[in-house]
């Protein structure tokens, strides 16, 4: 009869389980894969497959009793690391959502909101369009493979251990909120400026000839002009996405201490 010592069995399970918690937490919270469009079973299966593939490449895992307090602390640490890395990636997609909302409010489409199946909330139509376009560019440029590579490398930079990781990374993510709003303003600035000039011109016309009631004509004209500006600005959407995506991935690498 084959007898397996309890210590060996715990080591085998720990070599798989400790990385699995970090990887699964990342996939549950990251954009595209971690959205409501992807079923929970698919995300769980993907986490198991990725864990099985990368386990032979990872450093030696610590031996911790599965029913001890140290094991629960280790699980919480790995889940927190996975969620923090996924949240840093979420900021990249939120830039385009915020930019779409800025343009929508300026052109009078702020009332036109639809249910976002990705995040489960109501967003402006233009924000949903930018989000779908960003997701397609992210997948077409193998962005999901890049972030998985960063996730695997994080086990070398921040190995699985009972030592506390740098809490400063949490404050670093908070500081990145300014980067998110700055990127959204850069994307929306041309359209918002053009629409501001149009509204300013209608205001001058209304003051010059109040009896014409220019503002009744200005609302549909501003909306059509805003759609035209969005259509023209799509030609420069790809360079903007490439620059912001590179900055976001670099910041994600810096978050875990990678060069």
Uncertain ranges: none
Assign an overall shape.
elongated
Radius of gyration (Å): 24 Å
When the domains are counted, the total is: 1
Strand content: under 5%
Give the number of DSSP strands. Answer: 2
Subunit arrangement of the protein: single chain
Q: What is the residue-averaged pLDDT?
A: 77
Largest sheet: 2 strands, antiparallel
Largest sheet: spatial strand order? 1-2
**N-end to C-end Cα span:** 51 Å
Helix and strand pattern: HHHEEHHHHH
Q: Briefly note the structural class of the backbone.
A: mainly alpha
Helix content range: over 70%
Describe this structure in words.
There is one protein chain. By secondary structure, this protein is mainly alpha-helical. It has one domain. It has 8 helices and 2 strands, in the order αααββααααα. It has a two-stranded antiparallel ribbon. Strand 1 and strand 2 form a beta hairpin. Helix 3 (69-107) crosses helix 7. It is elongated.
């Amino acid at each position: 009869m084959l007898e397996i010592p309890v210590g060996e069995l715990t080591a085998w399970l720990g070599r798989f389980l400790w990385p699995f918690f970090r990887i699964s937490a990342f996939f549950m919270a990251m954009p595209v894969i971690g959205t409501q469009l992807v079923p929970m079973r698919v995300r769980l299966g993907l986490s198991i497959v990725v864990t099985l593939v990368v386990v032979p490449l990872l450093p030696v895992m610590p031996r911790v009793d599965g029913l001890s307090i140290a094991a629960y602390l280790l699980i919480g640490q790995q889940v927190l690391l996975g969620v923090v890395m996924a949240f840093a990636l979420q900021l990249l997609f939120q830039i385009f959502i915020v930019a779409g909302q800025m343009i929508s409010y300026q052109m009078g489409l702020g009332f036109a909101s639809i249910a976002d199946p990705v995040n489960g909330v109501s967003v402006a139509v233009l924000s949903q369009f930018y989000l779908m376009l960003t997701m397609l560019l992210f997948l077409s440029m193998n962005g999901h493979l890049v972030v998985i590579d960063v996730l695997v490398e994080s086990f070398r930079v921040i190995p699985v251990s009972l030592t506390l990781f740098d809490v400063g990374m949490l404050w670093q993510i908070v500081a990145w909120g300014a980067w998110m709003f700055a990127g959204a303003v850069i994307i929306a600035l041309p359209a918002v400026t053009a629409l501001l000039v149009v509204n300013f011109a209608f205001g001058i016309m209304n003051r010059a000839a109040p009896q014409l009631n220019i503002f009744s004509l200005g609302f549909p004209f501003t909306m059509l002009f805003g759609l035209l500006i969005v259509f023209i600005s799509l030609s420069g959407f790809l360079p903007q996405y490439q620059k912001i995506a590179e900055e976001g991935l670099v910041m994600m690498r810096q978050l875990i201490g990678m060069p």
